[in-house]
Amino acid sequence: MNLQNILSELEQVDGDVYDRLKHVSRRHMFSLFSRKAAAVAAPTVLASALNKAYGQSLDPVVVDVLNFALTLEYLESEFYNVGMDTPNLLTGTPRTVFAQIQKHENAHVNLLKSVLGGQAVEKPRFDYTAKGMFPNPFGNYEVFLTLSQAFEDTGVRAYKGQAPRLINNDPILTTALQIHSVEARHAARVRELRGQKGWITGNMSPGVPSAVYAGDEAIRHLEIPSTIEGVPIENSTEAWDEPLSKEDVLKIVMPFLA
Amino acid sequence: MKKLLHNPKEATRPLSVLPISPVFSGRRMFMRYVGVATATGLVMSSCTDKVLEPLAGPGGGSTAGARAGDIIELGSGDVGVLNYAYALEQAELRFLELVTDHFYAGISEKERQVFIDLRNQEITHREFFRQVLGSQAIPTLTLDYSSVDFNNRDSVLMTAKNFADLATAAYNGAGQLLTNATNLGISGIIVSVEARHAAVIRELISPGSTAFAGDDVIDPTTGLERALKPAEVLPQAQRFIKEVISANNLPTA
User: Fold this and answer.
1) Which of A178, A237, B145, B201 is paired with A34 by a 20 to 30 Å CA distance?
2) Hey, are the CB atoms on A170 and B185 less than 8 Å from each other?
């Protein structure tokens, strides 16, 4: 696949997103986020602290990374908001688990929006069937779980891939890392709900698009191989969660944009 | 403060390999940077002059053990931060080795598998740090887990949970101390695995609950997990370490 084509396609998608969002009323946005009204205060305090630390202007690279992160958080939060509101989809333990995850993803959205202020991208419209790839995502618990795992594990890889770009902004970097590890906890728990190990073995998981785990089997880091006598190769691959580039993440996410 | 050092005798492996922030345009690009870094090798962005003379072992790595009471100087710059991680990995691994050497009575098959996986994964982390630090690695620490009742499931799981939570918070807090993007990338590759461990252990302790990502470690209003500085982390690890870990020269911001 031609990288240049993909990049211009992504620009196209971005442009559409801006246009589309003009149709989203402010009231709708407000009601969406006032759902967790109590949660808004704390992120705002943190965000203003972050802004203070770095003046009013965020570096364009930081804005780019945070808007990328915000897009992923929108994808996750709306997925869980709809899932939790769908009768009979999530009951018992899964409901407990996903309520906690939903709480965090909405908090991440609020936090990133607060940090970005007027520079925050608005929420795109999502198609959780991914153009029909996942029929009935909110009517079938197994499909919902599969998508959740894909979103969480992709989220982990996405934040990881962006962290080095934030190296010159300590408060923002730390905030990103603090979100990153939460996504990893979510991923581990959702994987267990699916009967998978909490860690990623090799580079695949049943039902999840292969792009989500592409390259995750790596066991060489800085030329040091994690091939150790007595340690099965599966465990070596599990020990290292590999990053994904922004482009690779967007390729995974694009089918979910309406 | 940043100093470039070129000293091929100092390390067998490149550390802090890139004095620039690479633009990550893809995984392949990342790997290529690493490749370049390895070829150039041994360009280090850290002040290493304060690192104690390493206890050199075979292959340039310091495999020799320290002795109880010794002061272990982690060092400064990125080297110090990686030694800090190496100390934590050593401590965590030793605990897991003791768990798997003598499982508590009545352990379930699932729990047995989890602990074996954790031990094996932590072996790769420890070995990585040992090799990447080479002659600048701190020695093998003397660890004392006599306070843990390895026959008691609660004692073992609670200690495992505390370690995994602590390691995650430690990596979260250490990222900002690193000056090199490659080192930051590596710590990111490890920290999420520690977070997975924490979630899975917590689920073993409190099944069916929100503990896997509990409000005790993740602020429920911001959704942010703890990020702890070395000064907050080391006292908790020090309880199990017979040497005295000195973080005096670690960067603080």
Assistant:
1) A178
2) no
